[in-house]
Design brief:
Layout: H1 3-6, E1 13-16, E2 22-23, E3 33-37, H2 43-47, E4 54-57, E5 70-73, H3 77-93, E6 101-102, E7 107-108, E8 113-114, E9 119-121, E10 126-127, E11 132-133, E12 137-139, E13 144-145, E14 150-151, E15 158-161, E16 164-167, E17 174-176, E18 181-182, E19 187-188, E20 197-199, E21 204-205, E22 210-211, E23 216-217, E24 222-223, E25 228-229, E26 234-235, E27 240-241, E28 246-247, E29 252-253, E30 258-259, E31 264-265, E32 274-276, E33 281-282, H4 283-293
Parallel strand pairs: 2-3, 3-4, 4-5, 6-9, 7-10, 8-11, 9-12, 10-13, 11-14, 12-17, 13-18, 14-19, 17-20, 18-21, 19-22, 20-23, 21-24, 22-25, 23-26, 24-27, 25-28, 26-29, 27-30, 28-31, 30-32
Antiparallel strand pairs: 1-5, 15-16, 32-33
Length: 294
Amino acid sequence: MKLSEMLNGGSVSIVRDAEVFGLAPLSLGREGSLHYYSDIRFAHQLASLTGPRSILTTPEFRDAIPEVYGLAVCDNPREAFLRAYLAQGQTFELREPFASRISPTAKIHPRAYVSETSVVIGDDVVVGANAVIHERVEIEDGVRIGAGAVIGGDGFEVGTIDGRQITLPHHGRVIIRREAVIQSNTCVDWGMYGCDTEIGANTVIDNLVQVAHNVRIGEGCQITACCLLAGSTTIGDGARIGPNATISNGLRIGRHARVTLGAVVTRDVPDGGHVTGNFAVSHERFVEQLRQSR
C-alpha cells in the first residue's frame, strides 16, 4: 500500500510517497513500516534506522528525516498514526483464521474456555478451570496453563483521537513453547505491530503475572508472582525475575540475569547481571549504598 493511500484525507501532506508494509513505533524499527516522529527525545531511535521505511512527522522535524525515507507531514503525527493503524493495522497483521486444532491427549477443564478459531493446542497440554484461551494462540506439547489464566487478548496501548482516549486492537499471536508452565490468574497479551508475544520452552511463570504485548521470554526462565513485564521487553534464557518486580517497556534482560524481588528496572540488564532496588542498580552497588546509609 502506498503512503498516500494509507493517509488519504485529513490534514496530512505527503512529501515523498513510498510503499508501506506495516505500522510500528520507532523502537521496533521494522523495514517497510510507517513510523511517527514528533519528539526529539527519540532522535536516537530515528538515527538507528536502516532500510526502506516511511516517517510521519511535524513540519518542525521534516528536514531531519533522511531523503531515502517516505515522508508525510502533519501537526499531530501520533494521532494520524493511530487513525492509520485503526483503519489498516489488521490488513497488514491479521492472519487468516482457521478452525482450532486441539490434540486428543490435551486435558482441558470443562470450565475452561478455548476459542473455536485459530488456536493450536499440542499433546499433553493441561488447561485449568476458568482459564481463557483466546484466538491466535499456539500452545506446544506439554504446556500447563493454570486456573484463571488468560492467554491472548488486547494489551495496554492507549492513544488519543479528537480528545478522547482509545485503545488499539492487537492483531498478533501468543506462542507458548513446549513444557512451559503458566500458573493461575496470569495474563499474557497478544502481540501487535506485526510482532507476537512468546514464552520460551520450559519457562515457569508464577501466579498473577502480567506479560504485555510483544514480550519475548527465553527458555528456562523463572518469572515469580506479581511481576509486570511491560511491552516489547526481552527476557534472556535462564533469567530469574523475583516477586513483584516491574520491568519497564522495551528493555533487554540478559541471559541468566537476576532481578531481585520488588525491583523497578528501567535499564537493560547484561548477561549474568544482578539488579536490585527502585530504581534498580547492580546488586553490589545497592548493598553498598544500604550499608553506607546505616
